[in-house]
User: Fold these one by one.
Assistant:
Number 1:
Amino acid sequence: MSRFVDLPHLPRQCSTILYGEKYAEKLRKLLDNLRIRSILIPDNPNIDPRLAGHTDLSVLHAGGERLVLAPHLKGSFIEDRLCGNGAKILFPEIRQCPAYPEDVQLNLCQIGEYVLYNRKTSSAAIVEYLTKERALHLINCRQGYTRCASCVVDAQSLITADRGVAARASSAGLSVLLISPGHILLDGFPYGFIGGASFKLSAHRMAFTGRLDGHPDHARILQFLAQREIEAVFLTEEPIFDIGSAIPILEEE
């Protein structure tokens, strides 16, 4: 029997996960083999086509059954399917456009009781909901793509290549591994982000879209995970690539 993941990004044992349908060919069968069901998010027509399949620009998990969806998903089969599973859907009044920062209103990152965000680019309605309804603490960063830039390891730890995110998170008392930027593939861009290329499968397993061998900090990343009793799972034999992350929403009780 499944229930909604309480803390975003941190399933005890993921049973259902959301990610972009454009990555299904590479990932769906592999996740099926891990007994994890896929819910595939259609491309967002309102943002840059190179990023349209990135779930972290279209969906924000606000904890438990609460999900925030981008406008293009209103009335979609995704809304129907999520509601059929018991989700409570919020549609903030935002207008997404291809150019930054009009694409990142949903790209906040919750880590335990904290939320990494950029106060200039994040949806004010979402920020108000997370602080007033969820009583979360805000960490303001210059980075607009805070979810993309942050690999959530546990409720107190993250990995990032963004120095600003690392500094602000560390100041709030979180444990941070700062890695070198680059070395993560993202079609149409010089490089992608570690948060967009990773997601938790369970309390003790972290999935990476591909191998870390080509990353100069691969040993440090694995050591940081091992110190927290987390095993790295490489879903493909390709070099690691950015998919806009994936959102574990249901877990086994």
Note: The helical segments are 24-33, 77-84, 124-133, 146-149, 163-171, 218-226.
Number 2:
Amino acid sequence: MATWGRLDVFYANAGVPQWKTDVEQVEESVYDLIMNVNVKGVWLGARAALPVMKRQQRGVFLITASTAAIRPRPGGQTYAMSKGAVVTLAKALALEVAPHRVRVVAICPVATHTPMLPTFMGKREVDEEGLARYTATVPLGRLNDPDDVARAAVFLASDDAAMITGGPIEVDGGRCL
């Protein structure tokens, strides 16, 4: 705001994963960390960014959710719950800010080649077996590269996506079908 005098796009992209764990083995501290980063972080971002966008009558608030919000995998219930919460939050915020010509969109990527990928696989590092197992669940036959998510975000932030708000956008190669 100090430099440009406006806020066009805010992207709530911070997140922490969950090691594959049955619910009874999830420590409360792990639950708190996941919910604080994945949900509360988005909520705090919305509290800061959306009033600015509402005043200027324009803006896009993007959130990284996950396909886990739509089609969870076993052992990831806390992570899936956190991402489901931000999908619902995106819908609620979209309704709240639509009269101000502000859009809110949750991007739901499938597993992506990032430092979080091994955690989702329950491994310290990605190996051929884990990669093959995850890739087999994606109809297009590959996981996301970070650029896949970035291109979706750039599109959603643009005026080309002017009528997209509220709903989750799956960047998943068909995983949620």
Note: The chain has a mean pLDDT of 94.
Number 3:
Amino acid sequence: MIFNEAVTTTTRTMIVPKVYDTVTNGTPGLMTFLQTAKDWKTGTKFEFPIKFQDTTNGGNTGVADKLDTDRQNVRVKASFEVKMATKPVVVADIETTLNAGDEQIVDLLDTEFDSQAQSLMNVMGQNLYTGNGAGNEWDSLANAADDGTNYATYGGLSRSTYSSWAGYYIASTGSLTLAKLATAYDETTVGVDNPNMIFTTKALWSVYESLLTPTVQANYNTSGYPRMNAFGVAPNNAGHGGDNGFVYLSYRGTSLVKDEQVPAGKVFLTNTKNFGMKGVSIKAKNITVSNFKKTSDAVPSGVPGNVPSTKGFNFREMMSPVDQLAEVGHLIYAGNFISTNSRLQGQMTGVTA
């Protein structure tokens, strides 16, 4: 409908005081690891020993036999470097001046902060599932759950030398079947330690749902309808409804989670006790541990937007550059995604319907 100037010059347009996020992906896997992040307190590297083989000394012994005292080395040290990811928060002085008073719709600085924080989460989601650990790249589930096919080393250790340091990896999986999923699950289970989270794409989540559908038994009850009245109209009756599909899926009691950041054709089987985020809370002037500003119903549920302050999420406060009429801050994630036992991590690639 087109209004003439008699109306448009005397009436404002309706602007909703919210910013609706149509870009940021939902990533429950990332939020799982960020909300359970552990401290990387100090030290230039995160290191820990692993046992890479069993000893061959000792064993059964007889009466007064000489005991085997051969000392054998079966441990080696894995080493990970700290990584960082940033997004700038920039507002011009003239903009903050004009974005005030009765003419303000939403606070410019808060909105820019939240927008860039969500963008940083997109970067972190990519780091979680695709990082290769080289240079400034973060380590990830991709190189933790690998058998040496794509990543010959992990945590500075060669997987050909230390075979127990390999994760489960299958390339060109093809059609997803319960048998293939069972193999992957068994290969990433040691003792009673099994995967406690499985992350995949929305498309493959639906494929798995279709594998379960034939096993669902439905019961249908029938009842008679009253006869039509003298005018040929049936009296009012309750309508029949139907329901199909699942809102929650699991395999052997392990949640199967659809995550929009998981690359196409991949399924990750993860033991979160042995994989997670190690966060660095930067201690420096003008840098604070940060958080998203507020809840917003303009952001879809399940999309990063209102989470507890997580270790490794930092904000360098707004500063004025000497050559710019603006204020600049930086959102910073610091730490790394680290697995302390890669044989409990697995991935299936090239998975199809």
Note: The mean pLDDT is 88.
